[in-house]
Design goal:
Length: 169
């Protein structure tokens, strides 16, 4: 009688383990495609990095490109703009110009106001955001609020003298 109970107990344990294994495999089989569907598609990944040819940008002019759905301002600065940018640390969010550029003549910043996300206009050596009046200098540093932070510098690196990839370091 006791032997039969042990076998029954073993059978129950076996069935519990088998059910757990099959159930676990089912959960994994269900989750893998679901999680995979959350990965960015190849065209989104392609836009994670944007290569920009700088050869058409002349000193003192700005080129705007789209990167990850945001505008990015690329400015070839004149020697005067570089000198002015290096002469101060900005205002509201102090930061030396040298920490914001890889090459003094090229400024690359995300063109989104750090107050509430409007796109600032290029005016004079810097930018003005007409939504609430914030101003940024020739390094993209905020010099008049209400914006609390400087324009963001995106990750980028030069792949040639006149070519930069935005979105990769
Ligand atoms: S969004 Fe630019 S100042 Fe408010």
């Amino acid at each position: 009688m006791e032997k039969a109970n042990l076998s029954e107990g073993n059978r129950r344990d076996f069935l519990i383990k088998l059910t757990s294994v099959v159930g676990g495999a089912g959960v994994v089989a269900t989750c893998v495609p679901f999680v995979a569907s959350m990965n960015p598609s190849s065209d989104v990944l392609a836009k994670a990095e944007t290569e920009v040819d700088l050869s058409g940008i002349t000193p003192g002019t700005m080129h705007t490109i789209a990167w990850q759905g945001k505008p990015v301002f690329i400015v070839q600065r004149t020697p005067e703009q570089i000198k002015a940018a290096e002469a101060s640390n900005g205002g509201i969010d102090p930061e030396p110009d040298s920490k914001r550029v890889q090459k003094p003549e090229w400024l690359v910043v995300v063109g989104v106001c750090t107050h509430m996300g409007c796109v600032p206009n290029k005016e004079g050596p810097g930018w003005v955001c007409h939504c609430h009046g914030s101003e940024y200098d020739e390094s993209g540093r905020v010099i008049r609020g209400p914006a609390p932070k400087n324009l963001e510098v995106p990750p980028y690196h030069f792949v040639a003298e006149n070519k930069v990839v935005i979105g990769a370091t």
